[in-house]
Amino acid sequence: MGRNGKESRKSYPVVARPGNNFDPVLPSYINVTPVNYEGKLLVSFEWSKDDNPDFKGLEVYRSTSPGFTPNQNDFVLFLDDLHDTDSLALSHSVKYYYKFRTADHGGRFSKFSDDYIAFLFPTVEKLFPKNGAVIPFFDVYSVESLPFDLEYEIVVYDSPVVNEVWRSVRYRSTVPGELFIPNYIPSISLNKKYFWRVAVYLPGGNSPVFWSDLSSFQVTRFD
């Protein structure tokens, strides 16, 4: 519109796309949790997603070498959900190093993260009571402890679909061998089948690094 109040003719439509000139940044929160769950080896990821609409997801790379420089051979997973799991060709007693980088829809990437370490512990054998045991009331459970500084906990259920009835305090061990955990369950029914497992934690940890499978027992009498 000119000073005289007259309008010019309208231009042809113009289409413009914003430039993609900046690399994305890494999430402010990434958590890596390894667990041996009933013999299944898993590494779980939890992270915070950027609300930028150009954000695509998080690339995950894995190596057994600290400080590795990621390449496509190290790529294991692309994360677009806030929770996901790596279970690809993992072995216990191996220290894995993970690196992450953010990708956007414009084909740009963040720098790689520092190493995130995941160590998967081997199976902890349950020694007593044996699976399917029908026995008098017993004073202790026993498990085969590992040669690591870990805490062990017994969990008892009254059904195989898991209705927890008792959980022991944690008992710490740093050496391999038979570990005895007192059976302080406050009440138990005779001739009823119960199920138990052992959960293992890093000292002071909140999430188990190992869950055993379930074994059953029945108590026939109190001596």
Q: How would you describe the overall organization of this protein?
A:
With 223 residues, the protein is mostly beta strands. The chain folds into two domains: 30-119, Immunoglobulin-like (Sandwich), CATH 2.60.40; 126-219, Sandwich (Immunoglobulin-like). The chain is 0% helix and 43% strand. It has no helices and 17 strands. The chain has strands at residues 30-37, 40-47, 55-63, 75-79, 83-86, 95-104, 116-119, 126-128, 133-135, 140-145, 150-157, 164-167, 171-173, 177-182, 193-201, 210-211, 215-219. The strands form three sheets. Strands 1, 2, 5, 9, 11, 12, 13, 15, 16 and 17 form a ten-stranded mixed beta sheet that branches. A four-stranded antiparallel beta sheet has the order 4-3-6-7, with no helix packed on it. Strands 8-10-14 form a three-stranded antiparallel beta sheet, with no helix packed on it. It is elongated.
CATH homologous superfamily designation of the largest domain: Immunoglobulins
The CATH topology of the largest domain: Immunoglobulin-like
Largest sheet: 10 strands, mixed
Number of individual domains: 2
Number of strands: 17
Architecture per CATH nomenclature, i.e. the level-2 architecture of the largest domain: Sandwich
Descriptive terms for the model:
single chain, 223 residues, mainly beta, Immunoglobulin-like, 2 domains, 10-stranded mixed beta sheet, 4-stranded antiparallel beta sheet, 17 strands
